[in-house]
Each structure stands twice: as structure tokens, then as C-alpha cells.
Amino acid sequence: MRRGRRMGGRMMGPMMDPRSKFFMALASDQRIKILESLKKGEKSSAELIKVLELDPSVVSRHLMMLRNIGLVSARKEGVFLYFELADDRVLKVIDLATEITKDWFNRFQQFFR
Amino acid sequence: MRRGRRMGGRMMGPMMDPRSKFFMALASDQRIKILESLKKGEKSSAELIKVLELDPSVVSRHLMMLRNIGLVSARKEGVFLYFELADDRVLKVIDLATEITKDWFNRFQQFFR
DNA sequence: TGTGTTATTGCATATTTGTGCAATAAAGTT
DNA sequence: AACTTTATTGCACAAATATGCAATAACACA
Fold first, then answer.
1. B40 to chain A nearest CA, in Å?
2. Does residue A46 fall inside a structural domain?
3. Which domain holds residue B52?
4. Residue B56, CA: closest nucleotide via C1'?
5. Is residue A108 pLDDT above 70, yes or no?
6. Distance CA A79, CA A16 (A)
7. What whole-number distance in Å separates Cα of residue A74 and Cα of residue B111?
8. Is residue B64 part of a domain?
9. What is the ipTM score, two decimals?
């Protein structure tokens, strides 16, 4: 069954393959930076804001997204929040992506078009 | 250095972490369907159009994207094109994502908000 | 209570993506 | 040449994402 006449954009919602959503969470320079920062251990919001150089509200939203899908967990201490990786398997995924994309530099003229 | 006042949207371009782009390619139900179809072997455009139930032009674009980043290769035979996986390592990435997201079903009320 | 700090949410906006239709290109067939 | 079939590209538009600012909530402390 084809879609309607004008059904632009991504079709989000409960029927989406959860793996698409998982990869969507990783499809962002900022969120990859967050995950790689947390690889070395727990970090505060302030530290992550410093790393990303973005508005605190934006960093908060990236972190909320990673928390919602269970890749990052948060610990509250007074007004402060401290974040850490909640699922180390994501590091393996990122490592594989690093390996695969290393090959792209060899033929990057067709990729960076 | 902060960004300008209104810099919405994703910042694409050559400076992007290539891994973000790699994950972006996987952040789509349709492209995951394509890759999983090709897991079983070479497929024609017609077969993939049948699987995705989308306009041929749309399927062509998804395939072009996967070809551009080197995950899929194409073989021309007359007017027809046949596609196959060009890098089996992506299957390992998808398998890991399948494992990780299996846990989501246990607590999916907070995920599917 | 008032003040200050941190985190989140509401809103507006720029950018990107996904889609379908139409037109075109490429290749084969009659 | 004319016609058919397959694949790609041009275009418009809907939907989603990323961002910053402003307002608010949550919390500590004087």
C-alpha cells in the first residue's frame, strides 16, 4: 500500500523500527561527543556544556534523549546532575563505526560532494 | 565559540564527524530494510521496491545514499540494476543494535512517549 | 524570605530529510 | 524511428531535528 499524496518527512511513532531510533540517537556529532566523553567516566552537566560549546538547554536536550533510550544514566546531587554511560555496548557500536568510516577517507571525494 | 543567534537544523558538511553520517544512513526503517534484504544476497531494484512499497524514485535515492557511503554496490545489466552489500561489517553493527534495542521493549512506556 | 545557581520546558526559526509526481535519460524491442 | 521499461533528477512540500533565548522549576544558602 502506497502512502498518501504528500507524506513528506520521516514517519516517527511507535511503529518505527526501534533500531532506526537507536541509530538516530547516534547520528549526531554532539551526542557522539557526549558518549565519548562519558567513556572516561562520570561527567557533570557543566563539563559536558564545556565540551560541546552549546547552550545549556541544548545539551540538556541531547542528554535527555540519550537518557530516554537508556544509553546514559543520571545521578542527582543537590542541583547538580552527573551523567554516565548506562550501556557499554554502545561503545562497541561506535568503535565499529570508527573502523568502517576510516575507509571513507581513502575515497572521500565522492562522499563529501 | 558559540554559534550565531539562529542556527537551527543539523550542521551538515565536510566538517561533520563521518560516524554521524554513517549512523544517519542507518537511521531509517527503509534503509535498514534494504540492508537486511541484501543480507540474503543480491537483489534487483524491482524486488527492493516491492519490499519497501515506496515510489521507485524514493527507493533509488535510498540506494544511492547507501552506495555513496560504500555500504552497497551496484551491478548494471542492460537497463536493470542489481544491488549487494559492499561491506559486511554493517551487519555486525545492525546485530548489535538489535540486541541493545531488545531491552527497550521491557521498559517501552518511557520510550514511546 | 530573598537571592543565586542549575536544569528543563515553551517557543520561534533555520536546516535537513523523506516522499511523490513529473520529466528526463538510458537501454532494449519491434 | 517509435515505443516500452527502468533509473535518476528536478521540484514542491510535509515532517522532523537542532538550536538559542526566555521563562520556569528545583534546590541550596544566607
1. 19
2. yes
3. 29-103
4. D7
5. no
6. 36
7. 16
8. yes
9. 0.91
pTM above 0.95, yes or no: no
Look at residue B111 and tell me if it is in a domain.
Answer: no
Nearest nt to the B83 alpha carbon by C1': D7
Number of domains in chain B: 1
Query: Under an 8 A CB cutoff, do A28 and B14 touch?
Result: no
Residue of B32, B67, B73, B100 to mutate, interface with A, max A Cβ within 10 Å: B100
Strands (E), A3-110: 43-44, 72-77, 80-85
pLDDT at A71 > cutoff 90: yes
CATH of the domain at A89: 1.10.10.10
How far in angstroms lies nucleotide D4's C1' from the CA of residue B76?
19
Q: Give domain status of residue A20, yes or no.
A: no
Nearest 5°: phi and psi at A101?
-80, -10
Q: How far apart are CA A90 and CA B45, in angstroms?
A: 33
Average pLDDT over residues A83-107: 91
